[in-house]
From TrEMBL:
<feature type="region of interest" description="Disordered">
    <location>
        <begin position="265"/>
        <end position="290"/>
    </location>
</feature>
<keyword id="KW-0808">Transferase</keyword>
<keyword id="KW-0548">Nucleotidyltransferase</keyword>
<feature type="compositionally biased region" description="Basic and acidic residues">
    <location>
        <begin position="281"/>
        <end position="290"/>
    </location>
</feature>
<dbReference type="GO" id="GO:0016779">
    <property type="term" value="F:nucleotidyltransferase activity"/>
</dbReference>
<protein>
    <submittedName>
        <fullName>Nucleotidyltransferase domain-containing protein</fullName>
        <ecNumber>2.7.7.-</ecNumber>
    </submittedName>
</protein>
<dbReference type="InterPro" id="IPR043519">
    <property type="entry name" value="NT_sf"/>
</dbReference>
């Protein structure tokens, strides 16, 4: 992998690996593997196709006590309420058992959805390049090698305009500093990643590092560089300050959404069972955490 996150053939390299997991998090990952096997892959239920860990832990940049454990489970069937209940229970148990992690989050998807044409450059890319295999056959084997193209930019982050109203509603409902801090973190991380993928095809590479993402963005949009650096700082150290949310939701966010649509086009909404048109898809909700 070169300095732009590419392999020798110019495709985006998978960013994580189990041998990069920091020593402090090795017991967490081992426990997660065992619990997933017991809950989803043992006995007659055999719901699991494959499991993955993503985020700072497999990238090797996790900080004990601050970093999250992020898991993706690809199931043979559409996730059910029972599946979600089991996943929530497992996440709570992992949270309680391991002080090294801040929180645990488990994303459930259908394996067939990952491989679908509609998700080829969104959820498929996420699994193939941003997720590290933990259990089962790797879905990446049935997916293409990805390049930093305008198509990839549109399909991963071209729905910002659809997301802004939901964030504004959450900001209006936020009653506590904790609510506003969580929203600040998720919105800031999403805006930095959207800013990066806006310029990704011109830069010709991939990174998940938020500070580097802001730096790359600023090279192409120097007039907005300071605001994006501020956003990256808030993504790493979120604050309940209402002024930050106003910057994100009334200033940088609307500009970025309009510029993204002008440059790459707008991604179609991803409706699904129990999910109204326009609500962020599963990948976007996951990426807001990492």
């Amino acid at each position: 992998m070169n300095e732009k996150g590419l392999t020798e053939d110019g495709t985006i390299a998978r960013e994580g690996a189990l041998d990069r997991v920091p020593e402090a998090f090795a017991p967490v990952v081992a426990d997660a593997r065992a619990r997933i096997t017991t809950a989803f892959a043992d006995g007659h239920r055999q719901r699991l196709h494959s499991a993955y860990v993503y985020g700072s832990i497999p990238r090797g940049t996790a900080v004990p006590g601050r970093s999250d454990l992020d898991l993706l489970l690809a199931l043979h069937g559409e996730p059910t309420d029972a599946d979600r209940a089991d996943a929530d229970r497992m996440a709570a148990e992992l949270d309680g058992a391991h002080p090294a992690i801040d929180t645990a989050g488990i994303l459930l998807v259908r394996a067939r959805t990952v491989l679908s044409e509609r998700e080829r450059h969104d959820l498929g890319f996420f699994v193939a390049c941003l997720c590290t295999p933990l259990l089962g056959p790797d879905l990446a084997a049935a997916l293409p090698r990805y390049r930093p193209t305008p198509l990839l930019a549109r399909e991963t982050n071209g729905d910002l305009a659809l997301v802004l109203p939901r964030w504004r509603a959450r900001a209006a409902d936020g009653r506590t500093d904790a609510d506003r801090t969580r929203l600040c973190r998720g919105v800031a991380r999403r805006l930095v990643r959207t800013g990066f993928t806006l310029v990704m095809p011109r830069w010709g590479g991939w990174t998940s590092d938020l500070e580097r993402s802001a730096e790359v963005f600023g090279h192409y949009y120097p007039e907005h560089a300071h605001r994006m650096r501020t956003t990256a700082a808030a993504a790493l150290a979120p604050s309940p300050d209402p002024a930050l949310l106003r910057l994100f939701l009334d200033d940088l966010g609307p500009w970025l959404a309009a510029e993204y649509t002008a440059v790459h086009g707008e991604k179609a909404p991803r409706p699904g069972p129990g999910r109204p048109t326009g609500e962020p898809d599963t990948v976007r909700r996951a990426i807001e955490r990492v």
